[in-house]
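Write out a sequence, fold above all:
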Amino acid sequence: MARNSNLPLLLVPFLFSPALVRSSSPLPLVLNTWPFKNATEAGAGGGWVRVAALTTMDVGAVGALRRIKNAIGVARKVLEYTTHTLLAGELATKFAESMGFASEDLSTNTSRALHSDWRAQNCQPNYWRNVIPDASKYCGPYKPKPHSILKQDDPTYKETGDNYGHDTIGMIVIHKTGHTAAGTSTNGIKFKIPGRIGDSPIPGSGAYADDTAGAAAATGDGDILMRFLPSYQAVEYMRRGVDPTIACQKVISRIQKYFPNFFGAVICANMTGSYGAACNKLPTFTQFSFMVYNSLKNQPTEEKVDCI
């Protein structure tokens, strides 16, 4: 997703703190969901990428983009050269090529080996359900079960994480001129069903920014997160004067009511430079690490928040 502004789309990493992160920091401020200083370089290894960037209600996004490494750049072209919001799939790749982006094989030896091992293990885990043959035991191709025996069980596999284990990079910027920017990029979940698009390119889900309130970005199980538009909701809380940390926590709590075991985290910042984060506590995910940079810091700094 990309939002129009005179600000460059910064991809800089940043943060540390206890369960409640509350900080008033001079602008400019940059927050990043990846706790690595070299997070400007998102790895390509799954073959598909999806992205979003945002700043003034002008939005550009791409999803299920194949063979193009610089997805955030393509999202920017959607914003700058079209009146559309989201392009997806093979035709999004053709659009990228028409904008001068090089098409290349994004698979790596690691990703090919991972896929080969997955096939050898009867395609376990996967995201199919209510199909024949049994997706918990066999690979496809699959056909739907008769409607009379459908079950609304949980999928065979859920996206989970540890304190550092998430793929999506989300970034928000609050500039000293009063402008905001937000963007996300991801390879998506492993073993996904081809054609799946998660939360990253959906405005208000992966990221959201509004110069009158602040900005937010989310990471985690996109299939759950996108049902709640967590970034939009967090910005709306801050618009009402809610502290960024509390805004993030309220978003997480809202999702917990429906999916108590979901994997996810949110970063938030308001227009004064105050920021915060929150995450849903799981056995393997007890803290969320992210990065912060502002005019008081000489370099991106890691901060942590205890999950709730």
Notes: The first helix runs from residue 71 to 81. Residues 23-97+161-306 form a domain with the Glutamine Phosphoribosylpyrophosphate, subunit 1, domain 1 fold (CATH 3.60.20.30). The chain has one domain: 23-97+161-306.
